[in-house]
Amino acid sequence: METLAKNVVSMIPGLKPFLKRRRDGFNRSLLRYRCYRYEKKVNARHMGWQHSGTVNYSKRSSELIFWYHKLEKGLCLPPENRRFFGQYPAQQTLMLLRKWRSDRLSCDATVYKAAIGVLEGYRDFVQNIDPQTTQVKQTLTELNAFLSVQDKTEDSYRTPIDFKLLPEDSYDVLYSLALSRRSTRNFKSQPVSMDIVEKAAALAQLSPSACNRQPWRLHLYQDKNDIERMLELQNGNRGFGHTIPMLAVVCCDMGAFFDSTERNEPSLDGGLFLMSLLYALQSMGLASCCLNWCVDPRRDQQGHRTGAIPDNEKILTFLAIGYAADDTVVPLSARRPLSDLIVEH
Question: Is residue 103 within 8 Å of residue 89, measured between CB atoms?
């Protein structure tokens, strides 16, 4: 029967390519639906800060940063706009700090100390507000009551800080770095020091993110078998994957976001972090190559299992890291003209 159908199809001009287009179109539509349903399910499961009986450090710290950073941003407005603001964000910050302590989370955590530093800076601001309205007095009373039983924050957490101008040659230095960075597909077998990668990651952490929540996660693999199993799931490493001495998987913690209206932030924040990481690695003599993670839902789930990556962490990209082999060549990668990029209004 199948043979007969094939013979009939081959006898009618144009029918075979027509049926192929319809089949391909159906498969693409089905894949789009599966991807949409998968993303919707992941967002609904992991985005959001609803308080439950289980203490989740990642979500709690992200929510705390979200509220105290509102105060920090307000403290940096032009002088003529520095009127009283922030009573509700201050109250939310105080509430979360009390929960932090009652849930026995560490008061030595950077996020906790930073929150105290912001509240101290905000209190200094409120004390200088004139006249002392009911709102101002109430806010100041609440701040003093909480801060009076806290250790004074370290100077490194004091905010805001002065804007710093850079040396005149800073653009030239950055341009030279950007010009030298190219995707490398030929690595030495030389191991990569974790100390260097940590130093690069510390620089990348300075990247901007939504409300400074820093949702990034960096999973690192150096065992050859682990790298091979991960690369089997990614189709952009053929011909050079066996030379990669370290594989990084850049992820974003979905629990850092308050709901699905922030669905674009994981990719945006992750891209900012990734670019900083690439420049930092390049500046210390390491080569790299981004390996796109463009896969269907089943492959994405397999990547999480194989790499022991928690479900709440969205995989954004794989990244090969190593030292370029002596005979390495890289693509020129010519850039479009600025007229393709800039739209002046």
Answer: no
